[in-house]
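Q: Got a minute? One more chain.
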Amino acid sequence: MGAGGMRVVQVVRFGGPEVLVPGQDSDPVAGPGQVVVDVAVAGMTFVETQIRRGTDRWHERPRLPYVPGGLVAGLVSGVGAQVDPAWVGRRVLASTGETGGFAERAVALVGALFPVPDGLGLPEATALYSDGSTAQGLVEHAKIGAGDWVLVEAAAGGVGSLLVQLARSAGARVVGAARGSRKLDVVRELGADAVVDYCEPGWTKRVLEATGGMGPDVVFDGVGGQIGRAAFEVTARGGRFSVHGASSGEVTLIEPAEARHRGVKVIGIEQLFAFGPETVRWAEQIIAQAAAGVVRPIIGQTFSLERAAEAHAAVENRTAVGKTLLLI
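A: Always. Here it is, folded:
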């Protein structure tokens, strides 16, 4: 676009995906301690779709209009004062904070840059960064052992697909639960020992059969609601029930007395609040594993910048397999 302008997508009011409107904005300038990134890939999360709707309870509402997107990947094209010029030209992941990613160029603090190793594509790195660090943290907290049976809900999703692979690489056996044959095929390809469709009544009987009647030693509950509850009911005695999400709209809440009675250790969703300080370490671990070919992210669909509304819709209506990205 030359000086003084770049393509962006802005949220012009709170509402459905149609409030994402392509437009122009002035080029960002790197202040002290900042860099400008020429954006090649912009990531998005389910939470960002709820912020756009104005229904999210956990984040301050951005001032309208705003450019969504908190994570980008691309090349550093400029640096501000107090930043090593050696950053220019490097391939990086960059956290932009809450906003600014759906644009041709974005500003980030130099401390929020994560170098992408050679041999790993920028889309793959973007898909891995937040979901991968979450998956790595969940696996570490749940203390998976070789030979454990692990049930992963939403096993074709961004976090779930990585949990399947990490559990397998820890020597565990995996039951992947997902919705619909397309997603189950993906989970099989990732190496799950068994797959079940949790839209089918009695799906937990299939989980018990797969695990020889014992139930899973570890459950990763990213769905909540009735599915999370049903998964808790079949968790093995002495097992761990790890909660990390509520895509159903309700977090699985287990009374401590009930967990004790069942002999199950519940690792509640509040575990995520402690993840912050460890995120970079976990991201480094998972990105190194991806560069080495141990895990691969599932990028289900990509969209151009102008089609950001379609991208948000795909994330929101949960038809998407794996990660949804904008390629700019």
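A: The two ends are 13 Å apart (CA to CA).
Q: Perfect, thanks.
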